[in-house]
Design goal:
The protein is α/β, with parallel strands linked by helices and about 300 residues long. It has twelve helices and eight strands. Helices cover about 45% and strands about 15% of the residues.
Amino acid sequence: MNSAVLLVSHGTVDDLDDLQTFVTNVRRGHPPPPELIVELRRRYQAIGGRSPLNSINAELARKLELRLGQRVAWANRLFKPYTREVLTALARDGIRRVALVPLAQHSAAIYTADASRAAADVEIALTSAPDWGQNDELCAAFGARIVHALAGAPVDRTVVVMTAHSLPKSIVDAGDPYEREVRLAAAKIAGALELRLGRALRIVVAFQSQGFGAGPGSRPVEWLGPDLRETLDEARERNYTHALFAPVGFLADHVEILYDLDIEARAMCAERSLSYARAPSLNAEDDFVDILAGIARSLLGANTPSPS
């Protein structure tokens, strides 16, 4: 069998000594200021010293391989194992066709562009999933987790905060579809939720994890919002007492969820006398494996075996 599936994630580090290199990659080759590394190290240490993202992706690939009866590999766009390294290894093993599933459902084009260059260099034919944040099964999976997290909460006093990672506003203004994709997916999840619950919910979209400001003398960066602070301020002004966070822009637990939400947003809620809850992530759960299997089969074609 000369075809494989490749899952590609944003990336993280397992060793905090690698933060310098990782963040330099994130900043497109510009080294970070020392204080940024100090702060990021503190955040990783606050969630136990490492992000679970790489372990989750490895488990996801293992389960998907069993489900498909097809070789499945995983890679990171911005750190080890790099996409280029994994594609090179696949080519060395005789793989000539790869179905790429970006684990960034609203930013597929960026992942496809990076992987396409590497695939061409090793003579691999690459097919890639386009943005898939509005996939029906994906939206249903997020909705099911929100319903579960709502159990026991006073729904009429709860605001559901659907979050996604922020971007510099200049990127969106230049035509990047990210914000539109996030909002369309959130609206689809919200509509399904209201049908399932038989009632309207107070649902807002917020953008989290805005980047650190530029250095002294640099032009400040305007980030896509609203951010979490202004969202929670509004919730308090409207006399809500509970905030349920649903990170629908993310697929797996990592520092932006385990720190930025479970620690930082929880503290923001406490400051505003709001209770905090969060819908669980998809991680490597079986229903998410099913979703990825469907996407991968559509890329590979009808010859891919169905699950027994």
